[in-house]
Amino acid sequence: MPVIIAAIIIFVFLVPNYSYSAGSEVDTFQLNAMAQSLLQYIVTNPGNPPNWGLNSSGLSSFGLAEPNQPYHLDPFKVMALVYWTTPMGSYRGVS
To answer: Do 93 and 69 contact (CB within 8 A), yes or no?
Structure first.
């Protein structure tokens, strides 16, 4: 009888830990899939307006691709990211 009680106690302590780790693996997988989807969107879409790399004041949709050329990054958009300014006008370049 004590062996059965010990087995039940061990089972009760192990099951919540196992289900938590399995859940975190699923969350990590879902997060990875979402990140890949987001990155694919960024490198295949030009954003709106398509020439926002020259003037980002009216940016409503973000994308780095050149118009009608998915996977070809627009150098003006990449440079706009490097030399981005805050709404207060201060420089936030890469250091």
So the answer is: no
Dump pLDDT digits (tens) for 10-69: 656 666 555 555 556 667 888 888 999 999 999 999 999 998 888 777 888 889 999 999
Pairing of strands 65-66, 69-73: antiparallel
Please write the tens of the pLDDT for every residue from 4-21.
666 666 656 666 555 555
* φ, ψ at 80 (rounded to 5°): -60, -35
Rounded to 5 degrees, what angle do the CA atoms 37, 30, 48 make?
Answer: 25
What token pair was written down for 2? Answer: 């004590």
Long-range contacts made by residues 51-60, C-beta under 8 angstroms, separation at least 24?
51/76, 52/77, 52/80, 53/77, 53/78, 53/79, 53/80, 56/80
4: Cβ contacts below 8 Å, ≥ 6 apart: none
d(CA 44, CA 24): 30
